[in-house]
Amino acid sequence: METRRVNKVKSKKPIYILIAVIVFFILFISLISMPSKLNTAIDEIQVSANMNEVKSIFDKYKFDLLETDENGNKSIAIEFQDEVRKKLNTFNLNEEEIKQCLEWLPTAKTSINVIVVPDLSRRILDQINNPNQVTNDKIILSNIWKSFVEVSMLKQDSKDKLIIDVTDVEQAKGQFNAIANNLQFDLSSHKGKSNRLYFTVDKTDQFNMGIEKMYNSAIQKPLGADYVFYFKRYLESRIKKNTLFDNYVNKIVIITDGYLEAEDRASDTKLTPQLYKSLIIGNTNEMISMLGLNIPKVNVDLSNTEILICEVNERKTGKGKDFEILKAYWTDWLQRMNARKIQFSHREQATDITVNTINQFIKQ
């Protein structure tokens, strides 16, 4: 009797195993076919109807979709971020709406946009106030190039850019148009490979030769350094604006003695007895406004722009006082255009100090 019961149980054992296998298989299929939170989040993003809906879905899933990278840093899944940005892009948002989105979106990959505008006026020939200025400028420009290369070369698929510009294309004896293309270095088209491969010896030679030609032309026919005109006519097209997909840091380096003197009109940096007296009282900025001497504001937004004015140098007639007045003029002007950062660098006897200042400015 006992033997018969044991045999009966044994005969049913394969059935139990089969049932267990079937149940396990069903559970396995259910699990692999069940949509993940990532897929669910992406599906919801794709059917969202407007910017606010996208933000609501983003907020709903952003903590569930955190990933840890190899350095232990947490960030929202890139695939989800990409879908969010793509969906927002389909709404044809205006500039203000894009700014609103950038306030809650994770920061996109950051690229540096360096704009260098040397003063090619008679400053470069003034051996009394600015001895060896051309040599100084070339040292500064060479080190700007080196700093730019160091910042960019370890990246990949960045949109870093360096441009050497002048305040007016008529400068450099009208030949700057021919030189200009060789003084623009844009990595946005260098895709799918390390930036290191972009920065060849030929690129450095191209830069150095372009600078040499530009200064040789300017020496033959120097013109006024009309930075007001440059800001009004050219600067806005040179500045990069942040987008849903790209984050930019704009850095402008202006190489000038600081005196804003166009050839065809009165100086924008007027030096009056009242301003010299204001240095003693300490109210130079207020005096500039009181006298109505403010440099005319230009309609350009510098809120995402850092500016370094270097080689600022008092003329012998204004030693010990012009620097502070020039600094007040520039600061007042740039602040009224909402510049994010303004930095001044005096012309130093040792160019190493200026070079170090530039390196820090570019790399920060």
Q: Mind explaining what this structure looks like?
A:
Keywords: Membrane, Transmembrane, Transmembrane helix. The chain crosses the membrane at residues 15-34. This is VWFA domain-containing protein. The protein starts with a helix and ends with a helix. The chain is an alpha/beta fold. It has a 6-stranded mixed sheet, sandwiched between helices. Strands 1-2 form a two-stranded antiparallel sheet. It has 2 domains: 37-104, no CATH class; 110-363, von Willebrand factor, type A domain (Rossmann fold, 3-Layer(aba) Sandwich), CATH 3.40.50. The protein has helices spanning 2-33, 37-46, 51-61, 78-89, 95-104, 133-152, 176-180, 201-220, 227-238, 273-281, 284-290, 322-335, 351-363, and strands at residues 66-68, 74-76, 110-118, 161-164, 184-186, 247-255, 305-312, 341-346. The longest helix has 32 residues, at 2-33. 30% of the residues are buried. Helix 2 packs antiparallel against helix 3, helix 2 packs parallel to helix 4 and helix 6 (133-152) runs parallel beside helix 13. It has 13 helices and 8 strands.
